[in-house]
What does this fold into?
Amino acid sequence: QQEKEDLEGKLKLREHLSQNASKSEATPAPSKNVDLEMKQLQCKLKNSNNEITKQSATIKSLKNEVQEKEERIRELQAKISRLERDLNMKRHLIEDLRSRVKANQENEKTSNETLESLERKVKALAEDCSNKKTSIDSLKQRLNVATKEKSQYEQMYLKAKDELEKKDLRLTNLESKMVETESAMTELETTASQQLHGLAKQSGQALETVQKKLLLANDKVKEFMTFVKALTRELQYSVQELRTKIKQAKKMGELRSCTRSLSQESVQLAASILNVSTADLEEILEVEEDEETAKAKKEFEKDKEWLQYIQKLLEAQFPFASYLMDAILEKLNEKKKLVEEYTSIMKHTV
It folds into this structure.
């Protein structure tokens, strides 16, 4: 453009000079040179105009290319920012999963310790059960011995009764002989012997009925004791079963809520990052809290105390029916509350 301006200035000067030269006709030879220069300058001006048009066209094409590249750069920058955001999210997710894995490992350690302690308790209870079985066997043997002794005593009682009857017969014979010797004395003795015999029979029959009633009463008491013990054990077993069902239902609900809160894509992504299956990841995400184990221990201790209290009531002196009724009603109310809680949990989980 500067060359164009210079050439245009020169052209103007040449035109001015040619006009002056045409006015002054004294020097005609230099005007030809001026025309030639004018033509040369016009040619140069045309060439420069052509070059300017070419350069402006190239500049426009370059500007278009620059704009396209800038748009491409903007798209790439947006893509890079999106990728950086995704990368940061993935890093946060990996860190979160690592922290969860650490927490699950710690919880697994605690659960293993609790399992070991429970196994020890189970072994101790098994040993206690075996000891109780041996004691029950020994008691059964003693009972057999007692029944044998009872049968022996009954046989002795029957023998004594037979001997007594024989002696009664001898006494009647002697009395008949005494009647032959002294009629008055025999009459008195026979009446006295008859009265004594009746009294002896009545006392023997009364003793037999009392013994039978006492045996029946003992059998009834034993049956009542076994019924109460079986009822309390069944109540305790049903309450413990309901507690375990409630715990399992709560765990299933927590697991379902946890799996629902996490999307399937995130779970699969986490599983692929950790190089495990989704099922293993769900097992890792399960957490058993220490509070629940402590609560279960307290409930087990309460059940144990309740059974001991009922055993004391059964071993206590009369009357104890009202206290026994209150204790059983308390356990039944607890069972009712647990059933309501289990049904509400199952409704929410469904």
